[in-house]
Amino acid sequence: MNLTLHVWRQPDAGSAGRLERYEARGVSPDMSFLEMLDVVNEGLIEKGEAPIAFDHDCREGICGSCGVMINGVAHGPMAGTATCQLHMRSFRDGDEIVVEPWRARAFPVLRDLVVDRSPLDRIIEAGGFISIATGNAPDAHAILVPKQDADSAMDAAQCIGCGACVAACPNASAMLFTAAKVSHLGVLPQGQPERDRRALGMIAQMDLEGFGGCTNYGECTEACPKGISLETIARMNRDFRVASLRARPESAAAAGAP
Amino acid sequence: MSTPLAFARSTVGRKVIMAVTGLLLVGFVLGHMAGNLLVFKGPEALNGWGAFLKSSALVLWTVRLGLLAAVGLHVWAALTLIRLNQVSRPVAYAKRVPQASTRSARLMRVGGIFLLVFIVFHLLHFTTGTIHPGYTFSHTDVYGNVVSSFQVPWVALFYIAAMVALLAHLTHGIWSFFQTMGWSHTRYNPARRVVATVVALIVSLGFIAIPSAILGGMLR
Ligand code: HEM
Ligand code: FES
Question: Which of A5, A239, A248, B96 is the most exposed place for a label (fewest CB within 10 A)?
């Protein structure tokens, strides 16, 4: 296959960027999207030009490092698939493909297609944990977890933190990510002690990072490579509402979360 | 950290404020629409209903101030969130293809601001009588005010347009209300769409019937 790419090139965070045109020749339909970029980059390196920078690690859809906007769709045309798992057979010979980084005030571009997603890490730090007793591991069945709760926790825990929800949201909102992290612990018995603090703390951090709000468009769940559902956001909204109503003033020492 | 102020500042809290005030307004427009349909029973019915609503100044002003507060909070939350959402993506995509959002969801902003313009006009038109194109306003003859103003085509068409905007607003808004309050459940989610659409249709078609009938010469 021969393709024409329009790729966002930006030398660093401080410089202006623009779309550059590249011809990708002899692309195999069995290549992944990232392998296709590897081939383009080899050509660039041979010519003495800077290769296109993009994030990637596992290349098997589980680490959440990769992710670019492909022809206006986060992670490209294949539903439920991260960019590394997208194959070139999803395109046709002669296609023009626009490749852009995630766009959000909270995700500044570092270089080309690489953005700074550390706001997501700080949201997790603000409440994505549970307290456990150290020492010997407890018996696996010491705390009973209803099967349905385990299932919904696992559904939410599938979030790989790639940021596609932010990228796809017309408001650049991080609600789906935050909701996944709030609720995969919130539905489990182990997550109950910090449940209120978690919702309040993580949402406060999400707002501090400069993400937009939710208007229930549903673009996030459509873009999510793991299919995290909108119900997750509803669960977070409920946790936040309940926590706001019943939270007591905490002592300064116990406050912890911002 | 969860003071009422922190709640109102949070993006989630502000949506809850919008949802609760929105629901109050939905209750109001349902009652308002049903009362207005008395126009089809004739002048005595409608004017009697109007006089009854004004019979207790205390109740009247409590309801009026409550509604004003609800609209005020709703619009404040809406405008501040719209602003936030606009600045949250300073660099637009060169190419973006929406995958899931409905038309009614994308119309919330423009439609909501149009409704705000309509509400101001509507109060100046039928409540205070400041605007009275082509007739004399009367504080007691509600029927006369309604019929004579909707005989002016642009007034009738403006009201109809506003109620189409309300149809779109409530189609997304009522569905969205449940999501914001955290009431989402796979068993009931299809019903949320149905309830939202049916209530939105009842409200808007009920209102639209009145200017349409007058413009069509059915009521005079
Ligand atoms: C006065 C002018 C109005 C403006 C500027 C306005 C604006 C908005 C906006 C921007 C939203 C949020 C949409 C979203 O997040 O997707 C919204 C939601 C809503 N509005 Fe309005 N609106 C207005 C009037 C009304 C009226 C008259 C009603 C009811 C009769 C109403 C009922 C609702 C409901 C139920 C919601 C859903 C809240 C939620 O998303 O949870 N609004 N409005
Ligand atoms: S590279 Fe790990 S998910 Fe794509």
Answer: A248
Handedness of CA A51, A52, A58, A63 (dihedral sign): positive
Residues near ligand 1 with C-beta < 6 Å? Answer: A 215-216; B 15, 18-19, 22-23, 25-26, 29, 71, 74-75, 78, 82, 105, 108-109, 112-113, 115-116, 119, 169, 172-174, 176-177, 180
CA of A224 to the centre of ligand 2 (A): 13
**β partners of residue A6:** A21, A98
Give me the tens of pLDDT residue by residue for chain A, a chain 258 residues long. Answer: 999 999 999 999 999 999 999 999 999 999 999 999 999 999 999 999 999 999 999 999 999 999 999 999 999 999 999 999 999 999 999 999 999 999 999 999 999 999 999 999 999 999 999 988 888 888 888 899 999 999 999 999 999 999 999 999 999 999 999 999 999 999 999 999 999 999 999 999 999 999 999 999 999 999 999 999 999 999 999 999 999 988 776 654 455 544
Pick the ligand that lies closest to the CA of residue B178: 1
Q: Nearest CA of chain A to the CA of B198: how many Å?
A: 19
| Domains with residue ranges and CATH for chain B | 4-92+101-215 (1.20.1300.10)
Count other Cβ atoms within 10 Å, centred on residue B8.
Answer: 15
Q: Are A26 and A113 in contact (CB under 8 A)?
A: no
The domains of chain A, with CATH numbers, are 3-111 (3.10.20.30), 117-254 (1.10.1060.10)
Tokens standing for residue B137: 């306003």
CB-CB neighbors (< 8 A) of B84 in chain A = 171, 212-213
Rounded distance between C-alpha atoms, residue A152 and residue A188, angstroms: 9
Task: Measure A73 CA to nearest chain B CA, in Å.
Answer: 6
Residue among A173, A200, A211 minimizing CB distance to B2: A200
Q: What is the pTM of this model?
A: 0.92
Give the alpha-carbon dihedral of A234, A240, A242, A247, to 10 degrees: 170
Q: Measuring from atom 33 of ligand 1, which residue has the nearest CA?
A: B22
Side-by-side strand order, sheet with A73-74? A18-24, A3-9, A96-100, A69-70, A73-74
Ligand 1 midpoint to CA A251 (Å): 38
Ligand 1 centroid to Cα of residue A21, in Å, is 43
